[in-house]
Every structure is written in structure tokens, then in C-alpha cells.
Design goal:
Keywords: Signal. This protein is mainly alpha-helical. The protein contains 3 helices and 3 strands, in the order αββααβ. It has a 3-stranded antiparallel beta sheet with strand order 2-1-3.
Length: about 120
């Protein structure tokens, strides 16, 4: 019985970490999408870096929107499979609430740049 309880506790913890990891990635993708959309509205090109701006790669709003859509679908599927109740509307509301702060954070750390 103890082994079953321990296994259940470990599994629950791992699932929670997995869902939290998806949430963090989704917030980052949402921030990138928000940033790219605003950059393109101003006539610029969005760039992303994984080394604080030393090397930048261009990306488009449409590319990141497609990636975000796929990632949201995956996160919702995994949440459903782990017994969590989440809807796309709830997820969209959460992401909309956090995307501006995430975009600002990523820009200030040199991860995102808009160039005209």
C-alpha cells in the first residue's frame, strides 16, 4: 500500500511539473506573439535570441501564432489526460493577462527585439 501511495504522489508531482512547464512555455510564446504583432504594426521585424541578444533570428507573428496554437492544444490535451479541467477560453484569458508583462520582460533581457 505504501508503494502505491508513493508512486501516486510521485506521478502527481511529475504531472504537475509537466503542466506548469507548459504554462511557462505558453506564456513565453504568447509574449512573443504579442511583441511580434505590435512590432509588425509599427512596420518592424521581430527578432528572438537565446543568448541575450548576441545573435538574433527573425520570426513572424504568423509563425509564432501557429506554434502557440499547437502548444495550447498539446497543453489542453495533457491537462485533460491528467484529470485537470481546463478550457481553451480559460487558457486564452490567462495568457492575455500575462502576455504584455512577458513581452516586456523578454525585451528588457535582450531576448526580443523589434527592428525597423
Amino acid at each position: 500500500m505504501r508503494k502505491i501511495v508513493l508512486a501516486a504522489a510521485v506521478t502527481t508531482s511529475l504531472l504537475s511539473i509537466s503542466v506548469q512547464s507548459h504554462a511557462s512555455s505558453l506564456v513565453s510564446l504568447s509574449g512573443m506573439q504579442y511583441f511580434a504583432k505590435n512590432c509588425e504594426k509599427r512596420g518592424g521585424t521581430s527578432y528572438v535570441s537565446n543568448d541575450q541578444g548576441r545573435s538574433m533570428q527573425p520570426y513572424s507573428y504568423r509563425d509564432i501564432a501557429s506554434t502557440l496554437k499547437h502548444s495550447k492544444t498539446t497543453a489542453l490535451l495533457e491537462a485533460s489526460m491528467s484529470g485537470q479541467r481546463a478550457t481553451e477560453a480559460d487558457l486564452d484569458k490567462y495568457l492575455a493577462k500575462n502576455e504584455l508583462a512577458e513581452a516586456n520582460k523578454m525585451e528588457s533581457t535582450g531576448t526580443l527585439r523589434c527592428q525597423r
